[in-house]
Design brief:
Layout: H1 13-30, H2 37-47, H3 50-76, H4 86-108, H5 117-126, H6 135-144, H7 162-171, H8 177-186, H9 198-221, H10 230-261, E1 269-271, E2 281-283, H11 284-310
Antiparallel strand pairs: 1-2
Length: about 325
């Protein structure tokens, strides 16, 4: 019988190394991680369907996989030390926070837009969220991005998951124990420079498997809640997405700045002695997951439920 030690992995040959990388990716996708769970949760509940949640996990982790493959190739050439500094970690948090916050603004289409309506239109066209069209269509979208514009139907539409791909690429710059094992041990051991990217891709695919499963679960989660109509479920889901992305983005941004100012924050954690990376030491990332997914998710659920009830999107008992 063959045992694979995911705590301190040992491998022999290319096939063994790639299997270890894939399994590490699966474990990474299972354990609470600040670079994956908040994004997958936010977009999946906004899709309010099993299929939509699975698509979210796929789209997000596709960007994550591509980024990990690229960085794995860079690690082969021993440049990974540049990316594992506290400075890059802090910048990654700040960038993730900004991406989440801006995505929330786009998705909900209300609140302050900093008067960058034209830029928002161009960005949506570039990402394929809104196809290029006539001047009238562009003016209509610009109007919808106006802070004063409120359309009830927007709250009942599924959240577009296109932006999750961008989040996945950004999130791939986050470093933890899994990334360190991947970049400092497995990637440099590849037998050829042409294979330097493969461990990162295998790790990303392992993460993708779990993100698709979690996305499916999160997407279906709202159907076991209060008796709501389809539109009611949509309103609650989109409200949760709004809270997780908007206020979670603020939390990431603030923590990122704090890390740049006080790098020692990254070394603070609660030791659990569980021999699983991401669970052995519960640091700032773990508590971000709890605050964003559990705290903001629950708050968004309560607010969304009130919105749905005020719109009469509830199923009346017979």
């Amino acid at each position: 019988m063959v045992y694979i030690n995911i705590w301190n992995p040992v491998y022999y040959g290319l096939t063994s190394a790639l299997l270890v990388a894939f399994i590490l990716g699966i474990v990474h996708g299972i354990t609470p991680d600040e670079h994956t769970w908040p994004i997958t949760f936010a977009y999946s509940v906004g899709s309010y369907s099993t299929k939509g949640g699975a698509k979210t996990g796929l789209v997000f982790s596709a960007g994550f996989t591509i980024q990990r493959a690229i960085l794995s190739q860079i690690a082969y050439f021993a440049l990974v030390g540049i990316f594992t500094t506290y400075f890059v970690f802090g910048i990654t948090y700040i960038t993730i926070g900004l991406a989440m916050f801006l995505a929330a603004i786009y998705i909900v289409r209300k609140g302050e837009y900093f008067h960058l309506h034209y830029l928002a239109v161009k960005l949506s066209e570039l990402l394929g969220i809104h196809k290029r069209g006539s001047r009238r269509e562009k003016l209509e979208l610009t109007h919808r991005l106006n802070p004063a514009y409120i359309n009830e139907s927007d709250l009942t539409k599924p959240v577009p998951v296109n932006l999750a791909f961008i989040h996945g690429i950004i999130a791939g710059f986050g470093f933890g124990a899994f990334a360190l094992i991947l970049y400092t041990t497995i990637s440099p051991a590849m037998p050829s420079p042409y294979l330097g990217w493969v461990p990162g891709a295998a790790f990303g695919l392992g993460t993708m498997v779990m993100q698709i499963l979690f996305g499916s679960f999160f997407g279906r989660l709202l159907y076991v809640t209060k008796k709501l109509t389809q539109k009611g479920v949509a309103v609650v889901g989109k409200t949760i997405t709004e809270f997780v992305l908007k206020y979670g983005g603020m939390a990431f941004f603030i923590v990122g700045i704090a890390i740049l100012i006080f790098p020692q924050l990254m070394s603070i954690g609660v030791i659990t002695n569980i021999k699983v990376h991401n669970l052995n030491s519960l640091g700032i990332g773990f508590f971000l997951v709890i605050v964003i997914v559990a705290g903001l998710g629950f708050l968004g659920y309560k607010v969304g439920l009130k919105r749905a009830q005020s719109m009469h999107y509830t199923m009346h008992p017979r």
